[in-house]
Amino acid sequence: MSNSINGFTSVQTALTGTPTSPTAQPEQSFMETLQTAMGGVEQAQTDAQQSVSNMLSGNGEEVHRTMVAVEKADLSFQLMMEVRNKIIAAYQEVSKMSF
Fold this sequence. Notes:
With 99 residues, this protein is an all-alpha fold. It contains three helices and no strands. It has a domain at 33-99.
């Protein structure tokens, strides 16, 4: 059975491109984790744009590598939007609570 924490580590590795280990780095705040993930999404989009530009200008970029870069950027962006939606939903749920 899959561990949800390991799954998140895999997602974070996919977004940032660097593997993380709970003992290898100090704990990050939630905001720092989100900023790191958003930076990874931005980098994936930049890489995809560069790959498309290189392919269209004839600089030897292969079509399948370009498609992989574009799909990686798309999936990273979709994941970021789903996380944003979940954060907004959680905030709205907490704001409905009476203390």
